[in-house]
Design goal:
Radius of gyration: 18 Å
Number of helices: 4
Strand content: under 5%
Number of strands: 0
Structural class: mainly alpha
């Protein structure tokens, strides 16, 4: 059950898994197929567990994430989702020529220079 999961920052560092994938391993969404929580993913169930509202008229202040050390573990995923939502809703998607998917917290690009140096 989602109320019994021990949240710790190490969930962000599991090799080959994102934070959401690590949470889904601990609390699979298929366990909720016939419940009111069926439309929530593992992260959203954890927000519900700590009564953190991240959108809408009655959304909480950032401080709500830091009421406990376990709820604070959810904050980086909140930032990631907020940034992704901002990028997805921006005009940027109609201007870019290529996208690179990165399953890590860092990305090092390269630049090719074809000038005759």
């Amino acid at each position: 059950m989602y109320n019994d999961i021990k949240l710790e920052k190490g969930l962000y560092n599991l090799s080959g898994k994102s934070f959401l994938q690590a949470l889904e391993t601990l609390d699979p969404s298929e366990n909720y197929s016939d419940s009111p929580l069926a439309k929530l993913d593992a992260y959203e169930r954890q927000l519900k567990r700590f009564d953190i509202k991240v959108s809408g008229k009655d959304c909480d202040n950032v401080e709500k994430f830091f009421v406990s050390t376990e709820s604070a573990v959810l904050f980086p995923e909140f930032i990631r989702r907020s940034l992704k939502k901002g990028f997805d809703n921006a005009i940027l998607s109609s201007v870019i020529a290529a996208q690179s998917k990165c399953e890590s917290n860092s990305y090092i690009g390269c630049v090719l220079d074809d000038s005759a140096a």
